[in-house]
Amino acid sequence: MLVALNTTTAGAAIIVSNPFDGSTIGTVPETSAAEIGPLLERARRGAQIARALPRHQRSAILEVAAAKIAAALEDFALLIVKEAGKTIVQARKEATRCVNTLKLSAEEAKRNAGEIIPFDAYAGSEARQGWYTREPLGIIAAITPYNDPLNLVAHKLGPAIAGGNAVLLKPSELTPLSAIKLVETLVESGLPEEVVTVAIGGADLGKAIVAARDIRMVSFTGGFATGEAIAKGAGLKKLAMDLGGNAPVIVMANCDFDAAVEGCVSGAYWAAGQNCIGTQRILVQRSVYQRFKTAFVTATKALKTGNPLDGDTDVGPMISDRAVLRAVAMVERAIAAGATLLYGHTPDRSLYPPTVLEGVPTSCDAWNDEVFAPIVMLQPFDTLDDAITLANSPDYSLHAGIFTNDLSDALQAAGRIDAGGVMINDSSDYRFDAMPFGGFKYGSMGREGIRFAYEDMTQPKVVCINRTR
Predict the structure, then answer these.
(1) Residues 6 or more apart whose Cβ sits within 8 Å of residue 258
(2) Residues facing residue 169 across a β-bridge
(3) Per-residue buried b or exposed e for 210-238, using 16+ beta carbons within 10 Å of the residue's own CB
(4) What tens digit of pLDDT does each residue of 189-210 get?
(5) Are 253 and 287 contacting, i.e. CB atoms less than 8 angstroms apart?
(6) Burial of 55 (0-12, 13-18, 19+ CB in 10 A)
(7) What is the pTM of this model?
(8) Active site residue: 98, 255, 264, 276, which one?
(9) Does the active-site annotation cover 255?
(10) For this structure, is 312 an active site residue?
(11) Residue 400: how many CB atoms within 10 A of its CB?
C-alpha cells in the first residue's frame, strides 16, 4: 500500500475511497498546518540540492521516470480508475499523457537556458558583452485537483524540476495516491528525495503553505473560490492559476455535421464531465439545430454509464455523492427557471448519467458557472455574431471550439472569442501538453504547458562584462 511521503504526522490519516463502490483503496498520513515549519525546512534543503543539479542530470531523471511510467502504464491507469473514477480507457490516456509531459520537461531542461544579449546594438555599450540565464525561483508550492490526479501533477513537477526548483506538493485529499506514485517514481529515477516534499491535508494546510514567505510561487489548479482565497493570502509571490472554465462550442450550418456531433459528445462527457475544458454550452446555428439536437441526444443515449473498469464503459462515476448532489441541484434550478430536460438527470449514487438541457436561461448558474459534471446545454443562434456574444457571456473562459468549413468564420471566431484557446473543428477539450494552456477573463493567471510553465518557474539573471576594465 502506498503511503504519503515526507510528512511527519504520526496519528491522523486520510482514507482514500473508490468513488464507484466506496471501497477503501488505502490511507495516507494527514499533515496539519502546524507542521509547516518542518515541511519548509525540508523544502529549503531541497531547493539547494535542486539548484545544484546540472541540466543534463535533471533531464535524465525526467527521461528515466517517463520510461518507468511507460513500462508500468497499466498499473498507473488502474490506480487512476480506482481513486478518481475515470474509465480505464480514459485513465490509460492520462497515464500516456504523463509520459509525454515528463519527456517534454526533460527536453526543456536542456534547451531553455537563456541567450546572448546584444549590448553593442545600443550606443554607449559597444565595450560590453553578456548574456542572461534562466535561474530557479526556489520553492514552488503545487496544489492539484482530483480530476487528473497524475498528469496535472506532472505538469507542475516536470517543469519545476527542469528549472532546478524544489516543490512542496499538496495533491487533492481525494486522489493523492497517483501523485505519491509519481513522486516515488521520480525518486527511483534518481531525483534526490528532498526536492519534492508531499503534504496531504485540508484547507488549513493549504493556507499555511500559500502564506509561507519561503514559497516563491504558487501553482494552483482548482476552483474559483479557492483561487481567490489563495490570491488574498499569498502575499508577494508569483501566482499561476488554472481556475476552470465554461467552454462553449459553436456549430455552424456549414460544418462537417457528423464530426461536430461526435466531437461534442466526447468533449461533453469525458471524465464524467469533470474536465475544466469540457464542452458545456453547445451553440448551434438555427437551420441545423433540430437535426443536431436529435443526433446529439441519440448519441448521448448510446453511451454506457457504469463500472469504470469495464472496457466498454463510456462514463464512470463522479468523484463523490456530494459532487452528484451539486450537479442535480444545478439542473433542478435550470428546469425551474424554464429549461427543458432532453435526457438524463437520473442519478444513482456517484453515477450521474450524461444529461442534456435546452433553453437554459442565461441567468442560471448552469449557464454562467462551471458545472464540472456530465451536463451539456444546447442553444440555437442565428448569426455568428450572436454565437460569439453567447460564447463570451460568462466570466470564466479556458477553451472554446467551433465547427465550420468556412475559413473566414473560423478565423473570426478565433479572434473574437475570449478564451485561452479556440479549437477549430475540434471540441473544446482538445489539449496537447506542449501548448500554452490557461484562460482569459476573471481569475486566470499564467499558463501551463511545459515551456510556458518552465518560464514561469524560472527567472532571468543577466551577466554583463565590461571589456574596458
Answers:
(1) none
(2) 142, 198
(3) bbbebbbbbbbbbbbebbeebeeebeebb
(4) 999 999 999 999 999 999 999 9
(5) yes
(6) middle
(7) 0.94
(8) 276
(9) no
(10) no
(11) 31
